Amino acid sequence: MHKILVPVDFSEASVAACRYALALMHQGASEVMLIHCFTDLLVSAPGPPLTGVDPSQRISEEILHGNEENTRHMLADLENNLAKTAIKAGYSGRIRSTFLWGPPHHQILDFSTQYVPDIIIMGKRGAGGLGEAIFGSVTSKIISDARFPVLTMPTGENWTRPENVLYCTDFTSFDREAMTKLVSIFKESSVSIHCVHLSSVHDESAGHKMQQLQNTVKNAGIEKNITFQVIHEKNFEEGIDNYASRQDIHLLAVLTHQRNFLERLTNPSMTKKLMRKIDLPILIFHDN
Q1: Cβ neighbours of 287 (radius 10 Å)
Q2: What span, in angstroms and rounded, lies between the C-alpha atoms of 202 and 218?
Q3: What is the per-residue pLDDT for 62?
Q4: Which pTM value belongs to this model?
Q5: Residue 159 covered by a domain
Q6: Exposed site from 89, 104, 185, 237, fewest CB < 10 Å?
């Protein structure tokens, strides 16, 4: 892995994403790129430029444009602090930052297309009222539209490099590519990958499909500590929760075609108890 892209809005979640990026830098990433998308409501508002405004309106304009300067300073400070942390820890990669103008969703996608990161790391919650959603609106859009793997980070925990990763498979043609990328991301660590298929019924064909996947991975030359298992659980989310608890899973990896699962997993109506248990970093691969 060479390049990590981290969109930041200075919320707790985006700071957690930065910490995780540093942890991955320890595993060989050569660069962490921070980007912040700034939207000045005064400049972005439709209509002609403001003319003939009274002093109070001019003060408001100064405040809004002052916010840009303050935000630039915040981004620079974050970059410097992360760089100092990386140097102190002995990491060889570098930290960079870019300040962008415009709607975050479009700017992040456009920038990622040019930058071509190995992974995008984002917080599940953003700053402000919209951040109350389990998945911030921007993060949800990036998950849907980005061409690159997206890792979403929970808040409230000091997440470090994972030792156990759970990869959920539905036996698609993209499994081999996704697992190859997964191994590449964590190739410098001793991570164990648990390749699991969860089924609500006893399906004999699932065992055969898992064996075929195991053979495919082996023939592809993917060298990593990988276990393959079919688990029967009536409730999919509880099955994930139970397995993650038993195996001390630190990260969950899924494909975007499992959209129904993602929506259930991040649904605010789920019990708080279950959400606390399953609130893991989630790595999303795109099956296209």
Answers
A1: 14
A2: 26
A3: 53
A4: 0.79
A5: no
A6: 89
